[in-house]
Amino acid sequence: MGRQLAGSLLGIIGYGSIGRALAPIAKALGMAVLVADPFATVDDATIEHVPLEHLLGRADYVICLAVANEQTENLIGDTALARMRPHAFFINLSRGNLVNEAALVTALRENRIAGAAMDVGRARDQMPSPELTKLPNVIATPHIGGLTPPAIESQSLETVRQVQAIVNGEIPAGAVNAEHWTRHP
What we know:
The chain is globular. By secondary structure, it is α/β, with parallel strands linked by helices. It has helices at about 15-30, 50-60, 80-85, 100-110, 130-135, 150-165; strands at about 10-15, 30-35, 45-50, 60-65, 90, 115-120, 140. It is about 30% helix and about 15% strand.
């Protein structure tokens, strides 16, 4: 039996460019959207900006798009997974080190969450661990999004646009620390 997206609640952890692109798609599919990102501003009144704990406890689908750094290491571990609803799905499309894979395996085996999907993991090749990928309620795919000819071309052109902006004394589009811009022509 499938699940209908319309009427469900999507929780987006990390509201950067991908999260901002995903939210309107989810809304077009009839989903309500929650966002947890302490560094982002949500300008859309139909999107609820909530603390991570609230998002985890309410969302039917939790998608992790957070930045990977020391503060977000194992962001999704035993405590976070315990807050999720038993019918909820966890999706990681960010980086493997955001997730404690052993905790995720346990939550999935014990049916504390319904399932998981990911294209990243902690293995040397950045794939999810074999133990995780063997579970029947897991979908694991290779992380190839950035390794297609159109994606490589797009990334290259975006890099050129950002360097050009810096050379022109402008803030590059998508700068994560634009408020700290200090370079002047």
